[in-house]
Amino acid sequence: MSTSNSPVRRGSPAAAHLTRRDMLRLGAAGAGTLAAAWAVAGCTPSASARSAPLQFWQQYAPAPQQDPNLVAQSQWFLDNVDRWAKAGERPVDMVYIPAYTDPTNTRLTTAFASGDGPDLFLISPGDFLRYYNGGVLTDLTPYLTQEAIDDFYPEALATRTVDGKIYGLPMEQEPLAIFYDVPAFEEAGLSEGDLPTTWEEMLELGRRLSGGQRTGLVLDTTPSYYQNFTFYPWVWQGGGDVVDPRTQQATFDSDAATAALALFGDAVGSGAASRTLPAGGDMVGAFTNGYAAMWQTGIWQVEAMRQNAPDHPYGIFRLPAPPGGESVTALGGWAWVVNARGRDPESAARFAAEVMGSMSAESVDRAVQWNGVDKGNIPARRSVTEAIGDSGAFEDPVLQQFRDEILPTGRAEPRYPPVIYKAVSNAIQNSMLGGADPRQQAETAQAAISSYLETYEGGSLV
Amino acid sequence: MSAVTVSRTAGRARAGAPAPTGKAAQERRQRRAAFWFLLPDSLGLFVFVAVPMVLSVVLGFFRMDGFGSFDFIGLGNYVRMAGDPQFWSSVRITLLYLVGVVPAIFVVGLGLALLVQQKIPFVGAIRSMLFVPYVISLVVVAMVWEFMLSERTGVISRLLGLFGVDDVAFLGEPSLALGTVVVITVWFQMGYYMIIFLAGLQDIPGEYYEAARIDGAGAWQRFRQITLPLLRPTSFFVVVTATVAVITGGLDLVFVLTGGGPAGATTLLIFYVYEQAFLFGELGYAAAIGSVLVLVMLAWSALMFAVTRGGRFDND
């Protein structure tokens, strides 16, 4: 105890020259110097920061799993960035984000909120408008030739375009259909000829196939953007819509929307569909364990079946239509977008255009590799569809059926902002699981959407 | 120590200041030591708790789009809150959740504590087993229960099927979903509160029970006249902390189990805040709701402290 504060020490030569005030001054000066250095470093990017690789956030690469299909998809991305770097361009780092496709994942939201969003990222249609209205998407049109723009299917570009300017380059088109489990049908003495073409037939079949541990028909039940995505085509089939794309006015109080809400309510109420997702939402597990007979979902399940149950027999059919209506499906799919507030949007936009939107043979070949081999889904560009033909993954008759029979009935997933999403989601949930009156729910949602649109400013709602 | 005292006293004397007594100097040194010991914690609390809390309150007066755009809207978020039926629905659900969980946790926690206080075989193992759910990740807890409660295929549904109860969708039926979440919450928290109550029970002197027995008091009388009154400080702690835990917790459980559904039946206020902030980018509105939550909890804690005179029970 007598060491540091002892009179002897206090009287030592060193201490005599450093008073307490001196120490305070020195401390303040040191802190000031550090703060200034930090501020300068923060304001002025160093040479290394200016040439640091751009970041591309997505759900594919580098693959954390060893599954050959996922490794191949990851390698597709890694090959693209390697090629880009070897061409002497600014390198791009692929950053794998776990659960990136989950709309409730907060990584991207918080990154942008803190002003640190990635230079490139993948985006789904449901999220597009929020980022566009936030002013963080780069117009990619100047980096594309007219020939390349015309090569995209109009419905693939529609929800990534605002006022004629393209802000996202789609990688694929992902239509919805109803998958069915062949063994479940056979057990019930049913065949392909019994596949439903109307809503009533679908519900009847769902009731017939339900029993024991098996759910006859699975419609998505969890409140989410995804549930809305699966619901929209049922509204469109009767000629309805949530917002009229021409007038930009709410139209959800239509008979078509009410009928779609009633369909979801009847499906659950009659016992044709379950209140929760069997097998925790895993369609492959549900089919192979006999937990579900029919499931409304998307083309990505073809790859899931190929990976996890290659020998299990299943089929697909287009969404049944209401009386007097036409079968319509929704087209999802992810698109490349460039952060306008990123470190080098120009370089990032050139990279995106080169890989996803160039008419060069190399760009088309890369897309053929992605859609026709590694991923196995429907291309967003005509030239790629033609180049693939019935080769590679499209030797699979289910993928051919998706391309030839279901895609032509497709309409792009709408890009509604959160308030509209929530109004529709509440109506679906209350009608489907809460036993509420569909007409009343449609009117409540209509009122909420109309009120929101009165003051809405931003990209058009399509 | 004495050397320092002498030196400082001498220094002051040289400067002409009145010489403090030895006791005053000691107190000053103790205060200085306390200051330096408390400084790191205080700084940490200031930077990581106080500043974000103040910023969050300030944020509640802005409209933010999540991309760096701020618009000062005064009380706009609070006005919106007052007329937002979803907000009031989540308040109602949170109150139901609170009313369901806190009394149940109190009763179950105390009951288990009384049980494991007994001299029974393997009591250590039993205590550990009861505590284990509390240390498991809530996401894992939710997933395990989701599988067990799975409609048609879960083990609980199958068991009920043996008794002729078929197709019960515990997580898909609005009238059952919140109750199910309450049961799961009590299940994973009961071990923690059991330990708290056990500590309180072990603080009660055994002589009291012995004297009561000699006086002919039965088990129920001993519980009512000795255990409950002497557990009041522990009970106070349990009620306050369980209330705060219930109001601010449950997000991960609801997120995994139901996503706020079915038909909004499990949209707790904290889940609504999360949805507004991270799903819709309404950071200002979410911050305003968060501020109201903090105010409610402060008011609740203040009320509890006022009722119990600062949580002191010594003079009872």
UniProtKB/TrEMBL annotation, chain A:
PROSITE patterns: TAT. Gene3D superfamilies: Periplasmic binding protein-like II. Keywords: Signal, Transport. It holds the Pfam family SBP_bac_1. Belongs to the bacterial solute-binding protein 1 family. This is Sugar ABC transporter substrate-binding protein. The lineage of its organism: Bacteria, Bacillati, Actinomycetota, Actinomycetes, Micrococcales.
TrEMBL record, chain B:
Residues 91-304 form the ABC transmembrane type-1 domain. Its main location: membrane. Coiled coil: none annotated. InterPro entries: ABC_transporter_permease (IPR051393), MetI-like (IPR000515), MetI-like_sf (IPR035906). Keywords: Cell membrane, Membrane, Transmembrane, Transmembrane helix, Transport. It is a multi-pass membrane protein. It holds the Pfam family BPD_transp_1. It is found in: Cell membrane. It comes from the Bacteria. Residues 1-26 are annotated as: Disordered. Residues 1-24 have a biased composition (Low complexity). The keyword Thylakoid does not apply. The chain crosses the membrane at residues 33-62, 95-116, 128-148, 168-188, 230-247, 253-274, 286-307. Belongs to the binding-protein-dependent transport system permease family. This is Sugar ABC transporter permease. It comes from Isoptericola cucumis.
